[in-house]
Amino acid sequence: MKILLIHADYIEFEPREKAAEVFDPATPGEKKRVDDVLVAFIAVEKDDRAAMDTIVDQCVAYILEAARQVCAEKVCLYPYAHLSNTLAPPDIAIEIMHRIENTLRGEMEVVSAPFGWYKSFKLSCKGHPLSELSREIRPEKISVKRVKGENTYLILTPEGKEIEPSQYPLKKDGFSILVEKEALKIGRKLVSEPRYLRLCRKFGLEWEPMSDTGHMRYGPKGALMFDLAAAYALQVVLGMPCPVYPVRGTNMFNLNESAVREHAELFGDRLYTIKSDEKEFVLRYAACHQQFAMIRNWVLSYRNIPFGAFEVADSYRVEQSGECMLGFRVRRLNMPDLHIFCRDEEDAKRWFEVVHDRIFHEIEKLGRDYELLMNISSRRYYEEYRDWIISMLKKRNKNALICIYPEGKNYYWTINVEYNIIDIEGHEREIATDQIDIGNAKRFGICYTDEKGEKRYPVIIHTAIIGTIERFLFALFDTALKDELEGRKGCLPLWINPEQVRLLPVTDRHIPLAYRYAEKLKGAGARVGIDDRQESIARKVRDAKQDWVGYVIVLGDREETSSTINVYDRMSDTNREMTIDQLCKEFRERVAGYPGAPLYFAPELSKRPGF
């Protein structure tokens, strides 16, 4: 904050026209004069919001001390933006000016020039040594206010029984692992290198060393898997039993916008911020900002609700560098973020259950299950939601670990569920999320007209049904490694396997046959590679298996004249004799209901760079 104090014989000011979207009430052309007054020209700066109480107290103390020195009994507070080029947002500035005014009123007579107006003024300075003073008040870095109390945990059973975590009979199961880590704070030792990193390297997922910590890059195979996962996320939400509208937008939002700032402050201290053109921006940490900023301009009625908005949003979170984990905990993530706008809280609870069931359905497709950590924003909401939560637990006969947050913080949500798989290293890994938001519709000005013609704020479901793209791929890798540990062949689902079929001509003479088979398979939608290198057939077979190719077919003299081919199927780890038509039919059946894409690299292995 910058302050210029003038001890004046008089000041006369006149509001002319509005200069900001936020303003004090005033009448244009109405002059006001104050005699024998201390005039305080004040510019509120953007950093002042971080320590508003301190700024107000210091400003008031400075004005009172100056008034005592010059024996002034009146002060005129005059908002004056020209003292600074780093101004606070208007809503913050006017709030601070009002707080200064209200605090001073108990000490001296206060007149305030209206905020948010272009004004003309005349002033006569007294001219004594103390008649002109200036000061800059810098907000000291203050600690974030913490809500008193700690999170409390309990275990809720499908029968409605509540168990203290310390009294829960721990077993060697996934739910016990969740309880140990989250409630009892018993950590499990990390292995020197998690086994899934082998698959990250195989498919081209790695850190980008020329970027900030926690940012990934994807080679051609990884990029193909990424795009297929994103397409599948879209397919999943479009299959929801309500209209869903895919949107796209920016990842950078102005912190001078009150809705953006308030939402960002609720998120905490894991935000990326950047400066541009003397403005401060926050990089979004989910699709919320863009979808809410867009939907507040839509004309909505009860006939439109419920509906969803969806984007695979590049999102940014400043995770601790020591906690970054390739493909799981990253600073730039990609969130397939679905928001479902509901009429009210009861409507939101119904849609929450729809999403909850779909989340379980998707992980069960991989042969996995979730353990539930249910975060509740207050004891009041736990009591209100308890019977409803029990009804969801009964459907799947599952316990839930309940985390109840302390009272006193203005959370925008009521319930937030974290869906955790237990990975092969014995650690819980959150994949999907589901949340009820009761605050952001009002914050962003999103409203709809109800049956009575009255304006209502919708309640919003936040969810990532398959998790972030990175965490979905992590779940696929962990599932493949789990199969290996249990004695099966580790493999990816065929639809997302970068190379679904590889043809191995025995000699150059058989390459034309490989191209003919490739065209047939591509007609069925398959991604087909051809190993045309000058290598032995044993080496080609070994490399195809090391690359985790779904189907591997050797083509030699016999296949030139036979109607059948010998096909290695990685999923069953068997060799089977079948016709090309039978293989195409089986392929279509195995990828049915999933998105497809062409190869992102040359079909011929001889033309592929080493990636």
Lay out the secondary structure.
Blueprint: E1 2-18, E2 32-43, H1 52-70, E3 74-79, H2 90-104, E4 109-112, E5 117-125, E6 132-136, E7 152-156, E8 162-163, H3 174-183, H4 196-202, E9 205-207, E10 216-218, H5 220-238, E11 244-246, E12 252-254, H6 258-267, E13 273-276, E14 279-283, H7 288-295, E15 307-316, E16 332-342, H8 345-365, E17 371-376, H9 379-396, E18 400-404, E19 413-422, E20 428-437, H10 440-444, E21 448-449, E22 455-456, E23 459-464, H11 469-485, E24 501-505, H12 511-523, E25 528-530, H13 537-546, E26 551-555, H14 557-561, E27 565-569, E28 574-578, H15 580-591
Parallel strand pairs: 2-3, 3-4, 11-15, 17-18, 24-25, 24-26
Antiparallel strand pairs: 1-2, 1-5, 1-6, 7-8, 7-18, 9-10, 12-14, 13-14, 15-16, 16-23, 17-19, 19-20, 20-23, 21-22, 26-27, 27-28
Short description:
The protein is built from 15 helices and 28 strands. With 611 residues, the protein is of the alpha+beta class. It has a 10-stranded mixed beta sheet. Strands 1, 2, 3, 4, 5 and 6 form a 6-stranded mixed beta sheet that branches.
